[in-house]
Design a protein that fits this description.
ten-stranded parallel beta sheet; mainly beta; five-stranded parallel beta sheet
């Protein structure tokens, strides 16, 4: 089997999912609304998790992911999710992939992730710490918007773009260190961060757009 196309959504009795190593793709909506699932093991050969694959798996607490592309809304509304481990194969975190995971407190972005998409971690309201891997180049628009418990951010050394509203409405954010090859800080990147007192920006930044900080 190279692709899971069977729809298991709304299987309330399903508690554990193990994806075989022969599977290369998990299709759209496959495990949507499996509200009792607590653990997921994803085989080493899976390359793509399609949109909405695990959305609303409300009992899921821990997941280890080592796939190249995590598409939009893949784990959105997994409201019990506390821990994500990204393997070295992960390169793309799609839009809304982990949005509204309100129990998530800490994220370590995998070593080969290049792109954090639009609103990937938005409204993860208990998220306090983010560590960016060395390969991240783009922090997408609104990617951490509404993470109201986020306190400090150290931008990875290879980040080139912080897009519009990337850290908007992070109400607890007080410190940002930009120690990277950053070239562009887009508009409203830190809008609505009333506690932000320190932003350390290095000499590589070429463009700082209007209104990056508005309290």
């Amino acid at each position: 089997m190279n692709q899971i196309q069977t729809n298991f959504n709304d299987y309330d009795s399903l508690e554990s999912i193990i994806i075989d190593s022969n599977v290369e793709r998990i299709d759209n909506n496959t495990f949507r609304y499996c509200k009792s699932v607590k653990s997921i093991t994803i085989g080493s050969n899976v390359q793509i998790i399609d949109p909405l694959a695990f959305i609303h798996c409300k009992s899921l607490k821990n997941v280890t992911i080592n796939v190249k592309n995590i598409d939009y809304d893949a784990f959105r509304y997994c409201t019990s999710l506390e821990n994500i481990i990204f393997g070295e194969n992960v390169e793309i975190l799609g839009p809304y992939a982990f949005s509204d995971c309100i129990s998530l407190q800490s994220v370590i972005i995998g070593p080969n992730v290049k792109t954090i998409g639009f609103q990937t971690f938005s409204h993860c309201t208990t998220l306090k710490n983010v560590i960016f891997g060395p390969s991240v180049k783009t922090i997408g628009a609104s990617s951490f918007s509404g993470c109201k418990s986020l306190e400090s951010v150290i931008i990875g050394k290879n980040v080139e773009i912080i897009d519009n509203c990337a850290f908007s409405c992070c109400r607890s954010l007080s410190s940002v260190k930009i120690d990277s090859n950053l070239k562009i800080i887009s508009s409203d990147a830190f809008i609505g961060c009333p506690l932000l007192k320190n932003i350390l920006i290095n000499d590589n930044v070429k463009q700082i757009h209007n209104g990056i900080i508005v309290f």
